[in-house]
Amino acid sequence: MSTVHGTADNKFAAVREEFERNFAERGEVGASVCLSVNGETMVDLWGGSADPDTGADWGEDTVSIVFSCTKAAVALCAHMLIDRGQLELHRPVADYWPEFAQKGKEGVTVQMMLNHQSAVPALREPVKPGGFLDWDYMIERMEQEEAWWEPGVTAGYHMVNFGWTVGELVRRASGKGLGQFFREEVAEPLGSDFWIGIPEDFPHPIAPIRLYQPTGQETPIPFTIKLLTEPNSLQALSFLNTGGWGPNDADGHRAEIGGGGGISNARGQVAMYTPLANGGSHNGVTLVSADQLAIMERCSAATGIDATLLSRTRFASGFMKSMDNRAYPGGEQMSAIIGERAFGHVGAGGSVGFADPECGLAFSYTMNQMGPGIMLNERGQSLIDRTYEILGYRSNASGAWIR
After folding, report:
1. What is the pLDDT of residues 281-318, one digit of tens each?
2. How many domains is the chain partitioned into structurally?
3. Has residue 36 been placed in a domain?
4. Does 247 fall in a domain?
5. How far apart are CA 65 and CA 314, in angstroms?
């Protein structure tokens, strides 16, 4: 069994036990889990191997790609600007980014863009080699892409493009690049090791991501079927048309890939979410007002079938809400069950971070060994389940944890 390091309050001993079970029984390689309640860190654990090929352990400061957990950081930047009056939620994107308003996208609003309703979830033509590393190139591709549907009529998960659509709004409204704004306005004030584009002299070890290897026992889900059988489908293009970008590319680590390239660990994400779980402020740092926080937690788009993921989804202006697809074949691969008021984001392979203002909870789990599916898997969900049980929540049968 891999050695687990760090601290866990006695009240949360069951979370530590579940974390240890992940290594003993569920194929965990290297991982971290952290949570705070009412601003106090109650669990900060890490363990396993950062890189089995070199024998490097996962240490206290080890970080890794957290994939789409990065979208929550991008959404937070947008909400901070909305709170300051530099963006308006219901104004047309054209007011800030006129070049985007073409090819069926003229009516897109800021809210639609945050809701994955702006109708550019994928690019039909191939991304040039290294295109994900070139911000200006990707922005021009967003502008030139024809809408996949009438914006606003449905949601379709913008797998990586969210980072450029919402990220460009952040850049235009603030006058700062996405990574710079997040670093200066969020990460540095909070002391969070969370990066959208790392510096050349980055001090922390980065654990290489290990891709999930199917066992053949998984129930096929609609997204995966489309991805594997229809190369020109929205699903395949959103997932595979990347210009060769990979999660372990050093150049990619330095790029501002807001849809899936952020680098952090559980402690870094909890630092970002702790103010959001406690009225918008923590330790003298205010991210958003209470009114803006109420907007951030409210479900603003829900689908019966998401145009990209082909499962039920619920979004809160850039954040994921609790998503329950357990009733469907393979539904455990398409679900992420958190509290009803909670909001945050999962990342490919099963990483997650979220805030729950109802109970003052900020939670994150990150790892280097990807798991199956498009939402959480048993490793992350079990840690969330134990946490809510300890906090006195009774059931998640409704699709979200309730007291």
Report:
1. 999 999 999 999 999 999 999 999 999 999 999 999 99
2. 1
3. yes
4. yes
5. 24
